[in-house]
Amino acid sequence: MCLIVNGREVAVPEDPRVSLLDLLRERLDLTGTKKGCNQGACGACTVLVEGERIVSCLALAVQYDGRCITTIEGLAGNGELHPLQQAFIDHDGFQCGYCTPGQICSAVAMVGEVRRGVPSHVTSDLAAERVALDRDEVRERMSGNLCRCGAYNGIVDAIFDAFGDSPEEEAR
After folding, report:
1. Which residue of 47, 78, 139, 170 has the lowest C-beta tally within 10 Å?
2. What counts of helices (H) and strands (E) characterise the chain?
3. Which of 40, 44, 74 is nearest to 60 (CA)?
4. Is the dihedral of CA 94, 100, 103, 104 positive or negative?
5. What is the mean pLDDT of residues 142-159?
């Protein structure tokens, strides 16, 4: 049994009680993913499972046997930051930085949801073929990721800078 973490095959722990978060941080030394509340409420531990966001503190590693996991460390490529990572720097999308890895992973998945036409609670036209990505949509979709410093305006600005207002734009 194994899972693929940032393109690398990793053995699933023998103990079925090990959370995905603890596997990443304590056994694989991928400390970008943060342990915030450890109850699934803050989003600091958000990672991507085959492009979809999950809170890794509530997931058991064994549940993801054979699946591809991407952490904040896996978003950068060829020695360059992911466009959203750079946008967070450019727009002061963080202060203390603790929530930033989860915010970035969540935003990457959020754009995928918008591209697939998945509506949110604030989507005005549920029958539309395309979801308009506006500030209300971004704020609603990112509401599961908390920032105690209150860097929300910078986070939203960074998302628009990296992805534009069109979900069809390619974001890598």
Report:
1. 78
2. 6, 5
3. 40
4. positive
5. 95
